[in-house]
Structures are given as structure tokens and as C-alpha cells.
Design goal:
With 85 residues, this protein is α+β, with helices and mostly antiparallel strands. The protein contains 1 helix and 6 strands. It has one domain. The strands form 2 sheets. It has a 4-stranded antiparallel sheet with strand order 1-2-3-4. A two-stranded antiparallel sheet has the order 5-6. The protein is globular, with a radius of gyration of 13 Å. It starts with a strand and ends in an 11-residue tail after the last strand.
């Protein structure tokens, strides 16, 4: 799990199991201690193993440019994180 700090928020990479597959996610933890929010990343993909999902989440966390007032991660326009041509 990787972690990045932004003003008022800590973002963490993670993975969660959904049935037999895994989903990559970024969790947003407000500095005021209120409840975190969870954002699925690479929603068009699922992963067969937790390590692959975690690696994708770490990549997504590295692509975060900033955070909205409500904590939503901001990515570059058109950024998908996919290495597809």
C-alpha cells in the first residue's frame, strides 16, 4: 500500500476482492478524521490476483495530480492509466 499526502487529505492505494476477482482502488482519508471515501480505478478491468490489483492502484495513485475540495482525486484530462496503444 502506497500513501500520498495532499492538503487536508491522505490518499492510499489498495485492492479489494469482488467475487473471484480483485478491483484496484484509491481511498481518501480526510485529515479531520471523518469517514474515508473509496474510488475504484481502472473500472473497466478486474484482476485475477491481489498483487496485480495492488500494483495498478499504486500506479493510479502516482498519477493523481491533486484533490478536489471533497477529496475526489484529480487526474490529467484523458488519463486512463492503461498502457494500451
Amino acid at each position: 500500500m502506497l500513501e500520498r499526502e495532499f492538503p487536508g487529505f491522505t490518499l492510499r492505494s489498495g485492492a479489494t476482492r469482488e467475487g473471484s476477482r480483485y478491483t484496484a482502488l484509491v481511498s481518501v482519508h480526510p485529515a479531520d478524521g471523518s469517514y474515508p471515501s473509496y474510488y475504484a480505478v481502472y473500472e473497466n478491468r478486474s484482476f485475477r490476483d491481489e498483487a496485480s490489483a495492488q500494483a495498478a492502484a499504486e500506479k493510479a495513485l502516482g498519477l493523481v495530480m491533486g484533490v478536489e475540495e471533497d477529496g475526489a482525486p484529480v487526474f490529467a484530462e484523458g488519463e486512463t492509466g492503461f498502457d494500451d496503444a
